[in-house]
Specification:
- By secondary structure, the protein is an alpha+beta fold.
- The structure holds zinc ion.
- The site of zinc ion has 7 residues, from helix 11 and helix 12.
- The site of zinc ion (ZN) has 7 residues, from helix 11 and helix 12.
């Protein structure tokens, strides 16, 4: 999927937040359980009785059953609430249990001065529920690993680490200390127990087995979630769907060929929000009806129970008919609104199944590893186009204005990649040089807007074919623009669906930037046809591999097709630095996260999976080299085609191809949260030899000490002034510190770490090393990516309080001659963060003056109009620089922009698409109601989604709060599609003038917004931008309190991240305000 451009978010399982008041009731039960537990534990400690823990387990089990019984008496939504609460509470008590057991072991060990094998409960595991069973095995492990005892101080440290790791493995929202009292003050109790523990005995268990912990804990926390049983598996589906595009319903039939692997009476498969009307199972000629059909909404499954045992080894055919709603939630089989050229409102039927929504369309085994072939047929009105993954093979007229269209059989594939579309479209068609038919479907009357994507797609297919050395396995490739679409695009095999702005190019009205991101998106989705569709992750835990990889390869492919875009340089500002920024927060998470329930799966389609995933793959690509990387990819894809893989399978293939320790290097990047900062000092040893001393530490956004012991295996590269574009040395930094000798370096030479900004880490140079680099920046001897990396690292140090803002502004001065677009993007991004701080002070005018001085020389070089033969990046740079100068209130630039806008609005001289946003901003930031209305007229006069986006987002920069309020009303008016209105509100919220008002608006309208966006990444996005630009402790507390009292399920991680950012801003401001004031006032 392409969600990158739309960023982070989605739902999580943390329904518990929503139902917090329910906690009160449960609290009593748990407090009781905990008291009992403590008593048992004390008994266990005093008599060394191994059975006590067993009793405790049994006791708890009884309490749990009582809770469950209580649940059953409640209504359905209440059950759901209780379920969520209990799940979370169980996490707590499980954590407490573990820790207390560990402590008990320590206590016993200290008493006996020997290793306590007695703690291992000798009980019959078969009698226990899976949770207890798990606890029991964990306990056995615990005693096995007691052989290395360490000091209790260290134990406490490890325990803290354990908390953090645990919260990572929990539902995505960190568990908070403040919530501990919910469990009867247990947290305080361990404090007491620990303080009584002998000082020289402890556990080394937690640290050494952290990864196992992660895995196991997640198993336990998601006990209620189970993957489908594999006793019966499908091999082929016949699927027929008939949407009713007026009543917004659909009917369907499936006939599934099954293999019965183990004899059973039950078949469990996924189904959600659909009603199964009839079921018949044909086994060995017997036609069986189920005696019972039971749905589980929590597990999103349906279980068919038969009276007779289905024999192992038999095959069967399961026939079902079902019906559902053509919903408006942009998932499953849904309706998408469009207008005919005559202005009539109509609806298309569209599917979006990733990650787990095929089950909303037809009953199926909806897991990526349960692959099958599909024969799909659609019954549609005669005047509608019907598309699916494969080409059409047969058409029958059914009368009543209906036809039945059958599609060819698909290869063996996962359910989340199945797709159908029914609607009215025009298309353009081409053929790739290797004979694949490519079509781009557009709204009626706009087929020429599909030409650019068609060109890209027809070129991309043969490129990947030769890159992977495997042909595209399907006979056709369709791309289609969908008017209501929640993500950016979706890689359904053979039928890729796109948001209109991610595929349509109107040559007169599409900006270069948009065109570039369309090329990337098309490259991304087509890469998935191999990496994802042909070879699929075994489970969603490995999703990052799909997305990180596709997000990397899209650049490889665009670089091949459009070398003039210099796209790899842009990778660094688009993907890499954004990932670093997010990943430096305490509330980040490791790339690979164990997930279970569907609501957890959606949460991992975030910047860590996409951007950090792509960045570490780029680092790996660089480490093993292009040739071996290609070879390894071919091994991987060939070996696993039509099958499923784990992350480790890719490492194995790449290791085989490169003979380098790929798994060892990569596992630290995948399993650890955050990234290192490499501090480097140098000593000149002789005329020609320099010694570098490198030290790695975890980088933290606030400069605080890391929350544990982190060591990465870092492929480090070094360049020197002898040849700035060549790697002088490569080595692996796999311990805390290391010394490296560089030959051929004289005392005057500079040394640059991480040339090309490829390694996913930051570098902190000693003062001398940095000073040597500056002239190379000024003279632009240092390559662009190195200039960029330097400034970005430096800025991060400033935010972390390890360098002062005035220092970095001085450094930026060295970039005044800069000519590279991407370097300017990095500077602009950094200054944008600073701009937020300044907006909380009275320094804005001084800051504007500083900005104007910095950007003006470039603007003067570029002018307003595109020069003949101008390169791509200069065109992008012009938009960037002029837009900044407008924001810096540069008078002559604003006047020129206003003049151009006038001619544009009159229709005398349209502004080129690349400069439109800039000119819109110039008139709007000081605009009055008349301008506002004029912009609305422009909005209404276009039907190009891109232009509507551009105008509606520009409205956010109006300087008048009353008008900004009208902008929000406009966003909510229905005139803006629900998928877009969030971005308009965000535009208002990021304007310092609109910041408070937007936040008040949100609070006043929270229910309405929640109803509209719950369970969507759009809500996360909205909340992030509404709050993260505050910069005071009071605001941080206010926001925290607000989200404690008002529940927005699925936004917990975002809220924690944003609150963390508010505090970072506040501290930064406090720290640097004085020096910043004096620096800016001197300008
Ligand atoms: Zn993707």
């Amino acid at each position: 999927m392409y969600s990158n451009a739309l960023k982070t978010g989605c739902r999580t399982a943390m329904q518990a937040w929503k139902f917090k008041n329910e906690l009160g009731k449960l609290r009593l039960d748990l407090a009781k359980a905990n008291t009992e537990f403590t008593q048992h534990l004390l008994k266990a400690v005093s008599c060394n009785c191994p059975v006590s823990s067993t009793r405790f387990i049994q006791k708890r089990h009884r309490i749990k059953i009582a809770l469950q019984r209580q649940r059953i008496q409640q209504s359905k939504p209440q059950i759901k609430q209780k379920f969520a609460i209990e799940l979370r509470s169980r996490l707590y008590s499980y954590r407490c249990y573990r820790e207390l057991t560990a402590i008990a072991v320590v206590v016993i060990a200290s008493k006996q001065s020997q290793l306590p094998s007695v703690v291992s409960p000798k009980i019959n595991c078969a009698q226990l529920s899976p949770l207890e069973n798990f606890l029991c095995t964990e306990n056995c492990h615990l005693s096995e690993h007691l052989d290395s005892a360490i000091s209790s101080k260290q134990y406490v440290k490890q325990q803290k680490q354990f908390y953090r790791d645990y919260s990572n493995a929990s539902f995505g929202a960190p568990l908070k200390y403040t919530e501990a009292p919910l469990l009867g003050d247990l947290c305080q109790k361990y404090g007491l127990v620990i303080s009584r523990t002998s000082a020289d005995v402890g556990l080394n268990y937690v640290a050494g087995h952290r990864n196992q912990f992660h895995r196991k804990m997640s198993t336990s926390s998601q006990k209620e979630f189970k993957r489908l049983p594999t006793n019966v598996v499908p091999t082929h589906y016949d699927l027929e769907l008939q949407p009713n595009l007026e009543a917004f319903t659909f009917e369907g039939k499936t006939s599934v060929n099954l293999k019965i692997c183990d004899s059973t009476k039950c078949i469990t498969l996924n189904a959600l929000d659909i009603k199964i009307n009839s079921v018949e199972l044909d086994v060995n000629g017997d036609k069986l009806q189920p005696s019972n059909i039971s749905y589980s909404t929590d597990n999103e499954t349906v279980t068919l129970t038969f009276d007779q045992e289905l024999p192992a080894g038999a095959s069967g055919i399961l026939k079902m008919s079902f019906a559902g709603e053509l919903n408006d939630k942009m998932k499953g089989f849904y309706r998408s609104k469009y207008f005919t050229p005559g202005g009539e409102e109509r609806y298309a039927g569209v599917t979006q199944f990733e990650a787990t929504d095929a089950r909303r369309c037809f009953p199926c085994w909806d897991e990526p590893a349960i692959k099958a072939t599909f024969d799909i047929a659609l019954i549609v009105p005669l005047d509608r186009i019907a598309l699916s993954n494969m080409p059409e093979v047969k058409e029958e007229n059914l009368g009543h204005n209906l036809r039945r269209i059958s599609f060819d059989r698909t290869p063996i594939m996962s359910t989340y990649l199945v797709a159908v579309v029914v609607g009215e479209y025009d298309y353009v068609e081409g053929k790739s040089e290797d004979g694949i038919i490519v079509r781009v479907f557009t709204p009626v009357g706009k087929k020429e807007q599909g030409i650019f994507a068609l060109e890209v797609a027809t070129k991309v297919l043969p490129y990947y074919k030769s890159y992977f050395n495997i042909a595209y396995p399907l006979p056709k490739m369709d791309l289609i623009a969908i008017s209501d679409f929640s993500a950016g695009a979706m890689e359904n095999w053979g039928l890729v669906t796109y948001r209109e702005t991610f595929v349509l190019v109107d040559p007169k009205n599409t900006s270069l930037m948009r065109k570039q991101s369309i090329a990337l998106t098309v490259g991304h989705e087509i890469a998935h046809q191999w990496f994802g569709n042909l070879v699929t992750m075994e489970w969603w835990t490995h999703l990052w591999l799909n997305e990180g990889y596709a997000s990397f390869v899209e650049f490889l492919c665009v670089n091949h097709l459009f070398p003039e875009y210099d796209i790899w340089t842009q990778f660094v500002t688009d993907m890499y630095t954004r990932a670093l920024e997010l990943d430096s927060l305490k509330n980040s998470h490791p790339i690979e996260v164990p997930v279970g329930h569907p609501c957890e799966i959606d949460e991992i389609f975030d910047e860590i999976s996409y951007n950090k995933g792509a960045s570490v793959i780029r680092m790996l690509h660089d480490y093993i080299g292009e040739e071996d990387f290609r070879k390894g990819m071919n091994i991987y894809l060939t070996r696993h085609q039509y099958k499923n893989t784990f992350t480790e399978d890719l490492w194995a293939a790449l290791q085989e191809a490169s003979s380098k320790p790929v798994a060892k290097v990569m596992s630290t990047w995948i399993k650890l949260k955050g990234f290192p900062v490499v501090s480097v000092e140098s000593i000149q040893k002789s005329d020609n030899q320099r010694v570098l001393k490198l030290t790695q530490n975890k980088f933290t956004a606030d400069g605080s000490a890391p929350d544990g012991d982190y060591t990465w295996v870092i492929p480090v590269t070094v360049s020197t002034s002898r040849d700035p574009s060549k790697i002088a040395k490569t080595f692996l930094l796999d311990k805390k510190t290391m010394e490296v000798v560089l030959d051929d370096v004289s005392a005057d030479d500079w040394v640059k770490i991480n040339p090309g900004t490829v390694g996913f880490y930051r570098t902190r140079y000693s003062k001398e090393m940095l000073e040597k680099l500056l002239p190379a920046v000024r003279k632009m001897v240092l390559p662009p990516l190195d200039r960029l990396g330097l400034i970005d690292d430096m800025f991060a140090m400033v935010q972390a309080g390890q360098a002062s803002t005035a220092q970095v502004l001085q450094l930026i001065d060295s970039y005044r001659n800069e000519s590279n677009y991407t370097v300017w993007t990095a500077i602009t991004n950094s200054l944008a963060n600073l701009h937020i701080l300044i907006s909380h002070t009275d320094l804005m005018e001084h800051f504007n003056r500083y900005g104007e001085k910095l950007y003006r020389p470039v603007a003067e070089r570029l002018g307003w109009d595109v020069q003949e033969g101008e390169n791509h990046l200069d065109t992008l740079l012009r938009s960037l620089v002029l837009s900044r100068l407008v924001s810096f209130r540069c008078k002559d630039i604003i006047a020129e922009a206003q003049k151009r806008f006038r001619e544009h609005a009159d229709g005398t001289n349209p502004i080129p698409a690349d400069l439109r946003s800039t000119c819109y901003k110039a008139v709007l930031q000081d605009g009055n109601e008349k301008i506002f209305n004029e912009m609305l007229q422009l909005y209404r006069s276009t039907d190009l989604h891109e232009e509507q986006d551009r105008i509606s987002r520009a409205l956010g920069c109006i300087g008048n709060v009353d008008l900004l309020r009208k902008v929000i009303d406009f966003a909510m008016s229905g005139e803006v599609r629900a998928q877009d209105s969030v971005f308009v509100i965000v535009a208002v919220a990021v304007n310092p003038k609109g910041r408070d008002m937007a936040w008040e608006f949100f609070k006043d309208n929270n229910q309405k917004l929640l109803e509209q966006y719950q369970g969507s990444f759009l809500l996360t996005r909205l909340i992030k931008y509404l709050i993260e630009n505050f910069a005071s402790e009071e605001r941080a507390v206010e926001v925290e309190d607000y989200f404690k009292k008002n529940q927005f399920p699925g936004t917990e991680r975002t809220v924690s991240q944003a609150v963390e950012t508010i505090r970072l801003n506040a501290n930064w401001l406090k720290r640097d305000l004085d020096s910043l004031t004096s620096y800016l006032k001197q300008q």
